[in-house]
Amino acid sequence: MVVFTRLNSSTRVKAEISKRKRAASPTSEHPPSNVPESTPAPSDAVSEFDGTGTDASILERPVGKKKAKLLNQIAAKDQEWKADVACAQTKIASESERFNDIISNDSLSLKRITQNGETAAELTIMNKNLDNLDSEQQEYYKLKRKEILQSLRNKTSSRQT
């Protein structure tokens, strides 16, 4: 209860002081001045100050040391990440080129193997003994021999031109 009365009395004192201050404040009547009435009254620069700027970038605080250090670390990590990606892309490109070389070599090898197989088949047909075969088999081998000879003639004529 004692605290309440003290608190209550202090609020009463404050209220009385504020009433006295209001009574002492100037009235709407202006005191006589020495300035002639034809001159305009000077504007109050403090009352016209707005306190807020239109450009937010002007009002930003400068970056502190910790934040600047953090920004530098983030930028370094970003550059490191970009360098890693570039290195990986370079490795992928070189591996792809190597793979393409292997494939082209393999395809060349496969072509040669195929040509060797065809040549071996042609040689077996050309070297076949037709004496102990029936007439149909002999006719088949004769036609095949003609085809082989014709293709060889075409190849040699195309190489010469």
Summarize this structure as a short list of keywords or feature phrases.
161 residues; 4 helices
Structure description:
- The protein is mainly alpha-helical.
- Among the domains are: 53 residues; 34 residues.
- The chain starts with a helix and ends with a helix.
- The mean pLDDT is 79.
Which secondary structure elements does this structure contain, and how are they paired or packed?
Elements: H1 2-24, H2 45-48, H3 65-126, H4 135-160
How far is the N terminus from the C terminus? 126 Å
**In sequence order, what are the helices and strands, one letter per element?**
HHHH
What is the number of helices?
4
Total number of beta strands: 0
Task: Provide mean pLDDT, rounded.
Answer: 79
Low-confidence stretches: none
Radius of gyration: 53 Å
**Overall 3D form:** rod-shaped
Instruction: Kindly name the structural category.
Output: mainly alpha
Helicity, in percent?
Answer: over 70%
What percentage of amino acids are in beta strands? Answer: under 5%
Biggest sheet layout = none
